[in-house]
């Protein structure tokens, strides 16, 4: 019966296809006539671009500015009666062209700048713009290393950072704001520290260097933040971020402005809002992708913290003169520095983009997933400056990312203590993990710490949240339970809580095969291809968690097992376990 239904479905599909193909000449002509009004060529579609900076095409990058223009004043008869000045939107291209943002640009380049801001402070000096367009090299043509040194120097002059690499990280972030539209993600920079540690001073230095910077805003309104970001795509500076979060009954609640901050690190992020236009309400999609710096004492929470590069500021020593100095916003040196950055970006934007898209540059790094996403714009620019800087920033990023993962589940939290009990049970040979038994064990183990033990429902919620929900089985006469293997535990917990791997005596976990996008198959590994490893049985346990790719490919492609090194032996070289004969 089932086979008969399948045959009927196949026959009906074939019949539909035949009917579609057999259009009458009259119907075909009607379809062709209707198609004349529609565009099917992707290259002819007008695409939206960010006015403040964007790619016109694969060869041209541009900055959008409001330049002062002199226009004629006419009377009702059309006679010129005087002159007046107005701010006119123009784009300055990497080909040294000045183009007015008009309908002709839409037709010629198939792009549309929406919206064009009504007010955008000019941060590139008129003299430098004029010299650039006239092809007059009055300003010296600096190398990437020289521009980087000039951007780094104000941080060294005004700020005290205990870790010297932070001077380079801040300089790279400011330089990247001039081409952030080339990237898929852009990190939020958090300045965290106690009062008097120089958080605001660091943001003051940055706002005088970065592209289209706002003033340092304290508790800006939701309407202001949304409209400023949507229109100008500026580099936003928000201080006293504690006002963005409130704690009620032990739970952190964020206000609507945090949605914009979270979305600002991803290209294409939009936040819908109902706005009254005329006499009706319309859904407006606010574009929010733009650089952000936030200052806070208590730190950020949740998804916002996960998208940040967090720098912890400390007070400078009493004998360090930088503690008494403040940057002067009116110093003309800032204008000269910004001029260099505009010219540098127009010259090197293509190299920065190529370095960002060069996947082979990042394939051997320890940075993965979200950590690589937020550090990748800095690494790409560092590679353009010099490879030694790329290696230094990568090493520093790995250290910061490891600290972030270790902080994800702290040792004094319920999560850590519950997972530690699960680990002890697994090492004693138990695979059936019951929340009720964990609760009793928790009371015995931590009774002296004068804290209440979590309820069974809370333990289930914690285990589900960290990734064991798929391993929870239907309750039996003894209650809820999870069926967890040692390999399952290592696969789920090692990436989010590395410190548990140092306490564990579990065997090292085999990794999954690399996916090759070009071949659309499992990537090849040079050693011992074709021989079946004795650890395939372990891999099948991993597949039971939900990784179907192993089952699909293990029969067609035999690969060796690569160990994930634990924190304890991460200094050792190698890592490839040859299969036993």
What order do the helices and strands come in, and which of them pair?
Blueprint (H helix, E strand, L loop, with lengths): L1 H20 L3 H11 L11 E3 L3 E3 L5 E14 L5 E14 L4 E3 L2 H7 L1 E3 L12 H8 L10 H15 L6 H12 L11 E6 L5 H9 L5 E6 L3 H11 L2 E5 L5 E4 L2 E4 L2 H7 L6 E8 L2 E8 L4 E5 L5 H5 L1 E6 L19 H25 L11 H17 L1 H22 L5 H14 L4 E2 L1 H11 L10 H13 L3 E5 L2 E5 L2 H8 L4 H6 L11 E2 L4 E2 L13 H8 L4 H6 L7 E2 L13 E2 L4
Parallel strand pairs: 1-6, 7-14, 7-15, 8-9, 9-14
Antiparallel strand pairs: 2-3, 3-4, 4-5, 10-11, 12-13, 16-18, 17-18, 19-20, 21-22
Helix pairs in contact: 5-6, 5-11, 6-12, 11-12, 12-13, 15-16
Per DSSP, the total helix count is 20
**What would CATH call the architecture of the largest domain?**
3-Layer(aba) Sandwich
What value does the average pLDDT take? Answer: 80
Fraction in helix? 40-55%
Strand order of the largest sheet: 8-9-14-7-15
Could you list the spans in which at least 5 consecutive residues all have pLDDT below 50?
509-581
Question: Your description of this structure?
Answer:
The protein has 581 residues and is of the alpha/beta class. The protein is built from 20 helices and 22 strands. The protein has a 5-stranded parallel β-sheet with strand order 8-9-14-7-15. A 4-stranded antiparallel β-sheet has the order 2-3-4-5. The protein has a 3-stranded antiparallel β-sheet with strand order 16-18-17. 28% of the residues are buried.
């Amino acid at each position: 019966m089932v086979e008969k239904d399948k045959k009927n479905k196949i026959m009906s599909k074939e019949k539909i296809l035949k009917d579609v193909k057999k259009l009458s000449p009259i119907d075909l002509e009607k379809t062709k006539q209707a198609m004349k009004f529609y565009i099917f060529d992707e290259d002819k579609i007008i695409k939206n671009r960010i006015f403040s900076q964007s790619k016109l095409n694969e060869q041209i990058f541009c900055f959008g500015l409001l330049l002062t223009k002199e226009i004629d004043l006419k009377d009702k008869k059309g006679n010129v009666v005087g002159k007046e000045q107005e701010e006119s939107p123009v784009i300055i291209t990497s080909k040294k062209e000045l183009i007015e943002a008009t309908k002709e640009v839409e037709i010629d380049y198939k792009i549309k700048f929406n919206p064009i801001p009504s007010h955008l402070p000019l941060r590139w000096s008129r003299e430098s713009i004029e010299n650039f367009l006239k092809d007059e090299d009055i300003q010296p043509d600096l190398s990437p290393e020289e521009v980087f040194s000039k951007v780094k120097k104000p941080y060294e002059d005004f700020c005290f950072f205990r870790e010297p690499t932070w001077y380079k990280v801040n300089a790279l972030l400011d330089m990247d704001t001039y081409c952030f539209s080339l990237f898929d993600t852009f990190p939020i920079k958090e300045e965290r520290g106690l009062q008097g540690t120089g958080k605001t001073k660091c943001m003051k230095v940055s706002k005088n260097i970065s592209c289209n910077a706002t003033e340092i805003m304290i508790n800006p309104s939701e309407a202001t933040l949304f409209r400023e970001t949507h229109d100008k795509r500026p580099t936003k500076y928000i201080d006293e971020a504690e006002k963005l979060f409130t704690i009620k009954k032990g739970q952190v609640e964020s206000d609507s402005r945090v949605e914009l901050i979270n979305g600002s690190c991803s290209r294409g992020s939009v936040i819908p809002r109902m706005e009254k236009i005329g006499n009706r309400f319309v859904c407006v999609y606010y574009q929010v992708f733009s650089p952000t710096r936030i200052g806070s004492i208590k730190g950020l929470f949740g998804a916002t913290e996960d998208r940040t590069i967090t720098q912890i500021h400390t007070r400078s020593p009493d004998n360090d003169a930088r503690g008494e100095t403040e940057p002067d916003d009116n110093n003309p040196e800032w204008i000269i520095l910004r001029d260099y950055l505009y010219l540098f970006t127009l010259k090197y934007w293509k190299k920065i983009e190529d370095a960002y898209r060069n996947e082979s540059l990042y394939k051997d790094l320890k940075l993965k997933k979200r950590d690589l996403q937020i550090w990748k714009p800095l690494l790409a620019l560092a590679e353009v400056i010099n490879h030694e800087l790329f290696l230094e920033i990568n090493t520093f990023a790995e250290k910061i990312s490891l600290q972030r993962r270790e902080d994800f589940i702290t040792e004094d939290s319920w999560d850590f203590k519950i997972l530690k009990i699960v680990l002890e049970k697994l090492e004693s040979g138990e695979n059936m993990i019951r929340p009720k038994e964990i609760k009793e064990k928790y009371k015995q183990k931590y009774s002296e710490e004068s804290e209440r033990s979590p309820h069974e429902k809370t333990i289930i919620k914690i285990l589900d949240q960290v990734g064991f929900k798929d391993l929870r089985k239907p309750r039996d006469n003894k209650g809820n339970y999870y069926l967890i293997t040692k390999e399952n535990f290592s696969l789920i917990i090692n990436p989010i809580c590395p410190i548990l791997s140092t306490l564990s005596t579990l065997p090292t976990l085999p990794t999954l095969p690399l996916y090759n996008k070009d071949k659309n198959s499992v990537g090849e590994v040079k050693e011992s291809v074709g021989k079946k490893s004795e650890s395939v049985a372990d891999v099948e346990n991993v597949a039971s968690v939900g990784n179907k790719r192993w089952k699909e490919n293990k029969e067609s492609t035999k690969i060796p097992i690569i160990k994930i090194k634990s924190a304890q032996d991460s200094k050792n070289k190698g890592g490839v376990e040859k299969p036993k004969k």
